[in-house]
């Protein structure tokens, strides 16, 4: 189960970092206005106020979008980059030639993401916007023709060259972060999954228990145990026993979703946890699982796999007791089957 550059965890972390950087840029806008009002900077005061105010408002858009759509939104990187370019354009067009350096911000921001295409796109977009910003400043009367000519030679071209020099470093950093985060995701994926069954591992179960399940309003727990595994190992060998375990796991994997996670707890025991569900949803899940298990057992040339189960339903904060209750019900079913066999 390979995770790409835009796995949810990677994208969420990059988006949070990017929005955090934009907050610092907003603080920089406030600082520029304050320093200019104190005559530390020599910018035209009204232009400085308007330019920084527009930049401040534009830089708030990604934060508001993240609040509404969540940090895992795949659209957020493009909104962050575009609003940063727009903010740089606004500052450059209104304040004038003194603010060309702000065009380095979008390219630096693109380093937060592991997709090098974002850095390349931002690079060319910044070059175009830089020229457009100077043209707009001329139209607004903030620069004259002679100043434009002078700026093209002394400001625009040097800044373009500066961005050309920054781009390779941005791409290298992006590629390095991409490799590092892919490796991190692969290691996390190994830790989160049981290699034999490809179900989630007990480690992942304990992580979800403490971070997610305990905070759920309603939750369903189904405990499974493969019957007669020891007898199968003793009579047919451990390979046959492994076939029973993988067959049971396949039936569980078929029903996994964003709200249904199945875990191998060790040996022949499995747990499925359902979130955002009703008790009827839990019973429906068990019914669908029995059909999936029947399908697995109907495959020619395979060993019949019999599984006992028990379920419990309640509040997430009581999940530890729910697991015990489901385990006890599973054990009762197991004992009833043994008595019937005897």
Task: Characterise the protein shown here.
67% of the residues lie in helices and 9% in strands. The longest helix has 48 residues. The N terminus is likely disordered. It has a four-stranded antiparallel β-sheet, sandwiched between helices. The protein has 342 residues and is of the alpha+beta class. The protein has two domains: 185 residues, no CATH class; 140 residues, 2-Layer Sandwich (Alpha-Beta Plaits). The protein is built from eleven helices and four strands. α4 packs parallel to α6 and α8 packs across α9.
Keywords:
Alpha-Beta Plaits, 4 strands, 2 domains, four-stranded antiparallel β-sheet, disordered N terminus, about 10% strand, about 350 residues, 11 helices, alpha+beta
Q: Note the main sheet.
A: 4 strands, antiparallel
Query: β content, as a range?
Result: 5-15%
The chain-level structural class is alpha+beta
- The neighbouring-strand order within the major sheet is 2-3-1-4
Shape call: elongated
What assembly state would you assign to the polypeptide chains in this entry? single chain
**Distance separating the two termini:** 43 Å
Order of helices and strands: HHHHHHHEHHEEHEH
Q: So how many helices? A: 11
Fraction of helical residues: 55-70%
Average of per-residue pLDDT values: 83
Unreliable parts? 1-8
> How many β-strands, per DSSP?
4
Count of folded domains: 2
Radius of gyration: 30 Å
Helix and strand arrangement:
Elements: H1 8-37, H2 45-69, H3 76-95, H4 104-110, H5 116-139, H6 145-192, H7 202-211, E1 219-226, H8 229-236, H9 238-253, E2 260-266, E3 269-275, H10 279-297, E4 307-314, H11 319-341
Antiparallel strand pairs: 1-3, 1-4, 2-3
Helix pairs in contact: 1-2, 1-3, 2-3, 3-4, 3-5, 4-5, 4-6, 5-6, 8-9, 9-10
